[in-house]
Amino acid sequence: PLDLNAYSGILAPLNINNAFFGESTVSTKTLKLLFIACALGALAAPALGEEARAKPARATKVALHNSTAPNLRSGIALIYDETTQRPLYAKGADTVAPIASITKLLTAMVILDAHLPMDEKITLTREDEDRYKLSRSRMRRGMTLTRADLLKLALLASENRAAAALARTFPGGTGAVVALMNDKARMLGMIDSHFVDPTGLHSDNVSTAQDLVKLVLAAQGYEAIHQATTSTSHSVDMGNNRQMNFRNTNPLVRNASWEISLSKTGYISEAGRCLVMKVRINQRPVVIVLLDSWGKRTRVGDANRVKRWVENIPAPTEVLVRTDA
User: Fold this and answer.
1) Which residues pair with 97 in a beta bridge?
2) Are 98 and 205 in contact (CB under 8 A)?
3) Which residues are tagged catalytic?
4) Could you give the CA distance from residue 238 to residue 163 in angstroms, rounded to a whole number?
5) Are residues 127 and 111 in contact, defined by beta-carbon separation less than 8 angstroms?
């Protein structure tokens, strides 16, 4: 007969031994083996359950109740539900990558935190011109604008010279701004982000989609950033009854079907085309982060795909979220 003594350590909690079976009723080795297997399974189940809870399943595509993941072209993407504080979709969300002019959101926060006079006049100089990427600009050396106008143009039109002038005229200069940007990022918990310039022209300005959600949620608390990034255009007075009009680099702010409370685009060759937005879709507040998009319209196309997808997923309490590995 099968001796259960070898299993005494495992079966003791269940008070099981050879006598348990009763020699006159059950004596087959097969049945005993089956019983042992069941007992072992019962003891192991709680431990396995704890491990499963500690390490949720991960997937390359998000699984949602009665929904499939959106087919996005961006290399990195994160769709974050502000209400549940959970991602609805994640693709490479922890990948560190250049973020181009998304940087200007953080630059603007540092400028606004300093409470400098926004009506102060600032004249563009040679120092504000891009000698790293040689990017073009409609803003010319010698133009004089208020700090408020420069902030709007840096955010709305992503004007690099406007951002550079804001940093140059900051107390302590550009170096002080960059230092405060990194301090601000750390304060916001952006642990995988680093900044070396206020414009985003340097590819060493890096972050992750996860970190950028934190940036967007913090930036939405600044009314000046909300107003600038959601305006369709902004005109500045050039003197002699001349106006220069600048359009928002995100065409979606001109689309009435979108409810956008914050927006910023970015592009350098190393980063691809980037877009972050805080939006409301079907009364659901959502942060959209799209990085490393290629093709002039890819990020906008992806944003529209996200909108259609979110419109058709269940209410927040019904969503089962799984994130990419």
Assistant:
1) 207
2) yes
3) 101, 104, 158
4) 19
5) no
Residue holding tokens 């409370």?
261
- pTM score over 0.90: no
User: CA-to-CA distance for 27 and 303, rounded, in angstroms?
Assistant: 68
Element counts in the chain: helices (H) and strands (E): 10, 11
Average pLDDT across each block of 10 residues of the chain; the chain has 325 residues. List them in order.
48 45 44 49 40 34 56 96 96 97 98 98 94 84 96 98 98 98 98 98 98 98 98 88 92 97 97 97 97 88 96 64 46
Measured CA to CA, the distance from residue 308 to residue 154 in angstroms comes to 30
Element (H, E) at 52: helix 29-54
Joined tokens for residue 67? 């929904």
> How far is it, in rounded angstroms, from Cα 239 to Cα 35?
92
Q: What is the pLDDT of residue 261?
A: 98
Rounded Cα gap, residues 156 and 234, in angstroms: 8
Phi-psi region of 189 (alpha: psi -120 to 50; beta: other; left: phi over 0): left
In sequence order, what are the residues at sequence separation of 6 or more whose Cβ sits closer than 8 angstroms to the Cβ of residue 63? 69, 320, 321, 322
- Type of residue numbered 186: R
- The amino acid sitting at 172 is G
Are 156 and 192 in contact, with CB atoms under 8 Å apart?
A: no
Helix, strand, coil percentages (3-state) for the chain, rounded to 5, are: 40, 20, 40
